[in-house]
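dumping these here so i dont lose them again. two proteins, back to back, each one seq then structure tokens. dont judge the mess
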Amino acid sequence: MPHNRFYSPERFEKSQEIILKDDELKHFKVMRLEVNDTCEIVNGMHQLAIAEVKSSQKSQALLVVKKVIKKPPPLTNILCIAFLKAKKLELILEKATELSITEFWIYKAEKSEIKEIKKNQIERFEKILISALKQCGRFDLPKITFYQSVQKLPKFKGLSFYGDTSENAPLFYSLLKGEKPKLTLIGPESGFSKKEITYFNESGFMGVKLSEFILRVETAAITAASLMSHASIKYQPL
């Protein structure tokens, strides 16, 4: 991925003018691009624009789209995470975006140490998603949604899993074959409540083992994201 890739949340068309401001302008200034230089812009909506710098000012940079490249939507892989301390959530969001997670559902578990996600934290999370999008080279920006309990999560049409530390739980990766949408639910540091586990089992979730060891929440989330990502890769025959 080239360093001169920027983000703009709008649909691209050839000859369209794009204005960079705020964080993207800071990135632009760091890259020291000049008039007539070429760069890339991604919009998080499956499009990449090849653009040319038309002007560069103190308050903004003006780019002109020369070519638009499109990619089809990726397979749906949703990572559902309990409320955690901001630093841990930030790490998970960054790494799981790099691992092609398409949506993040963040919910308040009964044993969540954190009971509220603040507005400034949400803004910080969204910036992290954009930064990871640009860094890893993907075209789609993951969506992030917040819920007040597992019972408030939307009904999901696909394969639904939750991290299960039971000795007889099946291995997660063995159940990931196929192209069905997938959702994996990771609990808080203190684990799920009995009420939540009952709800999972009654709602069609499958308890799965991510490792033979007990994993920290952030390790479990990144492991789940990695396994779902790997299972979604379409390999070409030699």
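---- next one ----
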Amino acid sequence: MRYVILRDDDTNAFTPVECLDRLYRPFLDRGLPVNLAVIPRVRTDAVTPQGRPEQFLFAKNGTKSLTAAIGENPTLVRYLLDNPGYHFAQHGYDHSLFEFDSLARDDIRRRLRDGRDQLKAAGLGEPKTFVAPYDRLSRPSLQEVADEFAVLSTGWFELRRLPLGWLPKYAHKKFFNRPHWRVNGTKLLTHPGCLLSCHRPRETMLQRVKQTIASRRTTVLVTHWWEYFPNGQPDETFIPILHETADWLAKASDIKVVSFDDLAEGKVPLA
């Protein structure tokens, strides 16, 4: 059996319910878990590394507030809770640029704990999994995340950023070419890049997804909901690829789509 964890990043207080439902209704109706990496209190002035406004804020509608907590959108929260196929990871704190590429341990700890409290206050439960914006974590951030969460999902691990005590297990992971590993009970996952992305060739996208899943025991499949809605409008050539992916995953007898919570609770092997 092969396992797939679908991770969608950047759900926040301004995410339109209709966008999520348009994308993930085929998954939910088939009983396939969808893991939303939720920004607890998003900054309304968040920018990309290139200095452009983040596109996941396209529906903020001119708000003047500097931040907005996920619980401030009761319509979105109610929708998420009414659909138990959604599972929630903590995506940073406010998604300010490289907020966890920091050496300020007290600030890191505050962001982790305040973010967790925001998700709990909204009724989304206590997250077991952490996802850093842009997958960028400093050495202190890695240590603090491992102390607070059962699972860390990221794109890669850099030797120069690792806590020194992690190095023997990292060497073991590298020697055996394993994408996922464990330190002191925390499960550390890497993903093969954002395979479901508007920046990849559409004619080969699904085939690449199939090949990647076939090449490993457990695959974290990453996408971003807002990429399917450029300028707030549905991309009618990209959305069907996601839905074809749902159909293929549901029909594949040797693939099981699972949640990060399943992994954290030991229901899925770390491979």
